[in-house]
Write a structure and sequence with these properties.
- The structure is a single chain.
- With 256 residues, the chain is mainly α.
- The protein has 2 domains: 78 residues, Winged helix-like DNA-binding domain superfamily/Winged helix DNA-binding domain (Arc Repressor Mutant, subunit A, Orthogonal Bundle), CATH 1.10.10; 138 residues, GntR ligand-binding domain-like (Four Helix Bundle (Hemerythrin (Met), subunit A)), CATH 1.20.120.
- Helices cover 61% and strands 3% of the residues.
- It has a two-stranded antiparallel sheet.
- A hairpin with a 3-residue loop joins β1 and β2.
- α5 packs across α8 and α5 runs antiparallel to α10.
- It is globular and about 55 Å long.
Length: 256
């Protein structure tokens, strides 16, 4: 059931890296243009459409941590009333992508390095459980598709494409079509942290390490060695957490 109470502004101060702090009030992109680029899967209610556009803008790194989300501007750009904008912001707050800050209203949420480590710890628990279950079940054809995805990722030359293929690989090997709740838990945690790989310019920085780890993980699955696959995945996620937490703590590279 959707909550109708407006989120309270009061709350603990959010982590801000040195370059996260942003006092601008303008949305730094045209949301209506972003809407036109999104795939049309089904007819959405107005608040769902607003949430989808803002979610894409946040998870793709166009809207950075602590960026203000003024309702007037969002409503004007998307040509909607304030009511669906408020509902969309509440939805994104429940997903961990939006926060309400004192005297600022809605902003893109910011994660501290410790929060990033915690999210990866939870991901490791859920994703290794999914992988243990999937390893003896996945068909040879599915494993062949996973190998093709890895080949495409190794040939990718931009961070957005590489990141999308990385998500495709993990989703395929977890085989969660019949576990929608587990799938949504994992996907929700990924949405909270994946944007930082883009905004900090890290998507390709550690790619060779990650690609080698992906190959080892797939080889363990081909051998149907669930224990080895789970151990490799746990180490893979721990390494990713360490890289990302360190980057967030030091702040993103200076803009060119």
């Amino acid at each position: 059931m959707r909550k109708t109470r407006t989120p309270a502004a009061a709350g603990p101060a959010r982590y801000q890296s040195p370059t996260d702090r942003d006092t601008r009030t303008a949305i730094p992109l045209q949301l209506d243009q972003l809407l036109e680029r999104l795939p049309r899967r089904r007819k959405l209610a107005t608040h769902e459409m607003v949430a989808e556009v803002l979610r894409e803008a946040i998870t793709s790194g166009h809207l950075r941590a602590n960026q203000p989300l003024p309702q007037d501007e969002i409503a004007a750009q998307l040509r909607v009333s304030h009511i669906p904008v408020r509902e969309a912001l509440r939805q994104l707050q429940s997903e961990g992508l939006v926060a309400y800050q004192p005297n600022r209203g809605a902003t893109v949420s910011a994660l501290s390095p410790e929060e990033i480590r915690e999210i990866y710890e939870i991901r490791a628990i859920l994703e290794t459980a999914a992988l243990r279950r999937a390893t003896p079940r996945l068909s040879n054809a599915a494993l062949d598709r996973a190998a093709l995805i890895l080949g495409a990722s190794e040939a990718a030359n931009d961070g957005v494409s590489w990141g999308s293929l990385d998500v495709d690989f993990h989703q395929l090997i977890y085989d969660l079509d019949d576990r929608p709740r587990l799938h949504e838990l994992i996907a929700g945690l990924l949405r909270r942290v994946d944007r930082y790989w883009l905004t900090h310019g890290l998507m390709l920085t550690h790619r060779r390490q990650f690609e080698q780890e992906h190959r080892g993980l797939l080889e363990a699955m081909v051998r149907r060695d669930a224990d080895q696959a789970a151990a490799l995945l746990e180490a893979h996620l721990a390494g990713a957490a360490a890289h990302l937490a360190a980057a967030v703590e030091s702040g993103p590279p200076a803009a060119a």
